[in-house]
Specification:
Strands 1-2 form a two-stranded parallel sheet. It has one domain (about 5-90): 3-Layer(aba) Sandwich (Rossmann fold), CATH 3.40.50. It has 4 helices and 2 strands. Helices cover about 55% and strands about 10% of the residues.
Amino acid sequence: MTEGAATTIWARAFADELARCGVQDVVIAPGSRSTPLVMAFAQDGRFRMRVHLDERSGAFFALGLAKASGGDHNHLRYSDGERFPSRNRGLAQ
């Protein structure tokens, strides 16, 4: 099995598990590192995908969704350690 095929299988399994846990909204900031997950979410059909070109504004939007939903199923995924300050600032504020 190629690395690409393994990544695709993992991403689909991850999306399936999040859907089974009740996650409905996915906020993404597109980039090459997140492509397998974005494709898995898009092909699954159980998610509302929200695209933000800026990661910090995406973090604020995701935080607003979480607060407005009042649900227990709020998740944040980091694809790159360099992006942590951008998203963390949104969470901290």
